[in-house]
Amino acid sequence: MVFETKLYDALSISPTVQQDDIKKAYRKAALKWHPDKNKDNPAAAEKFKEVSQAYEILSDPEKRSIYDQYGLEFVLRGGQMPPPGSEDAGAGGNPFASGMPGGFGNFGGMGGVPGGTRSFHFSTGGGGGGRGGFNFSDANDIFAQFMRSQGGGMGGMGNDEDDLMSQFGAGLGGSRAGHRSSKRSQPPVEVTTVERNLPVTLEQLYKGGNKKIKIQRKTLDAGTGKLKPEDKILEIEIKPGYKAGTKINYKGIGDHEEGGQQNMTFIIAEKEHPVFKRVGDDLRRVIEISLKEALTGWRKTIETIDGRQISVTGGVPTQPGAEIRYPDQGMPKSKKPGERGDMIVEVKVRFPTSLTTEQRTKLSEIL
């Protein structure tokens, strides 16, 4: 039976938990209440301080043992004898008595009962604890030290120091030298890059602009320490003249993983167009004319990729498969602003499927 449970309650754990469970509980609580994650909640700073101070005592097995037996006030007094008349003033109430099993010698710089053989010392200094009393460290320093200690790993949790550093930045406090030192022995984990096709119409590739898409990713919930799904809207810039296969890279927008958020690469995939076929920077299209038109002449009105109407005519006669090239009517050249490819019109001659005897006779006479 422990003397009191307020420090355990602060971390939402049972007094019977193992040391590793205390670390996990602190990590979860510190992420939830860190001031950098709760800038609009002034009460969070006090809660962060509370859970950090609870961790500072409970994470040390010796401090935890003294707290379990005699409570927080006893710890803050630096192990001084309880006031006369209290429950702990009687025989067996002094944890520093030489004959008590598990007892310690000098505590917090206070002269202990003679006969003790082991020295135990909380941090000392000025403050509410008085001479030799225990003083809590700064909450930011406690958190920074905890984060640096994760370089050695913690069962099943992995080393996500880089991700937490990026979330809280300077809020970790403490020396950055310790962080750099740990990285010499353990190289940072690189995040993966995920590739996705981005279907785009030919008109969009001609005009350019922003294309909005929605992605679903998994992010780390600071409150629970678990991954949760999240929808994110992206505006991807399409520059005029982009070709199929063009890659557009984004960093840190994908799923959360050990090294941070995944990078994503979007690969332009050109949608099939009902009229035009793109060949490099040129646009090709096919028009049909009749055999009569091919022999006697023709004129057609067609629409360009930018929506303009132009008149197209052919020579007399027009050979099947003939091509007519219109300069600067194709796609923009992405690497040469202001320049465009050509539009190429291919002529397909539609031959009749049958001829009457009279038609054959007349054609034979003419040709």
From TrEMBL:
GO terms for molecular function: protein-folding chaperone binding; unfolded protein binding. Residues 171-191 are annotated as: Disordered. Residues 6-71 form the J domain. One of its GO terms (biological process) is translational initiation. One of its GO terms (cellular component) is cytosol. This is J domain-containing protein. SMART domains: DnaJ. CDD domains: DnaJ, DnaJ_C.
